[in-house]
Amino acid sequence: MSQFTNATIQKAANIYYDGKVTSRTVTLQDGTKVTLGIMLPGVYEFGTEGPETMEILSGELKVLLPGTDVWKEIKGTDTFHVPGNSKFALEVFALTDYCCSYPVL
């Protein structure tokens, strides 16, 4: 989906790693939350509370998902899933635009 309709957007940004990763939280009409963000080049690690789906809209990066020793390369667009209560690592090589979805549990 290229756009969201009937959504509420939080004005305050979520800022991580000294501003190298930022996002805005969007709440959809059904209560589903997503974040829309940008990552600058760097190495990052994030923890999850619940499951997440990361949709890379553009960029160049590698991701190391929980339970694997193999980095997945992404150039352009792709989607990956991260289980809840886990950590994943990212190595971002070029400005990366993303959308992260958090299902309603």
Written overview of the protein:
This protein has one domain (8-102): Jelly Rolls. The chain has strands at 8-9, 14-16, 21-27, 33-39, 42-47, 52-64, 72-75, 78-82, 87-102. Strands 1, 2, 3, 4, 5, 6, 7, 8 and 9 form a 9-stranded antiparallel sheet that branches. It is 0% helix and 60% strand. The mean pLDDT is 95. By secondary structure, the chain is mostly beta strands. Strand 2 (14-16) and strand 3 (21-27) form a beta hairpin.
Overall geometric form: globular
Proportion of beta-strand residues = over 45%
* CATH-derived topology: Jelly Rolls
User: What is the N-to-C succession of helices and strands?
Assistant: EEEEEEEEE
Q: What is the average per-residue confidence, as pLDDT, rounded to a whole number?
A: 95
- Biggest sheet record: 9 strands, antiparallel
How are the SSEs placed, and which strands pair?
Blueprint: E1 8-9, E2 14-16, E3 21-27, E4 33-39, E5 42-47, E6 52-64, E7 72-75, E8 78-82, E9 87-102
Antiparallel strand pairs: 1-3, 2-3, 3-4, 4-9, 5-9, 6-7, 6-8, 6-9
Feature tags:
single chain, 105 residues, mainly beta, Jelly Rolls, 9 strands, transferase, purine-nucleoside phosphorylase activity, RmlC_Cupin_sf, uridine phosphorylase activity, EC 2.4.2.1
In short:
With 105 residues, the protein is an all-beta fold. It has no helices and 9 strands.
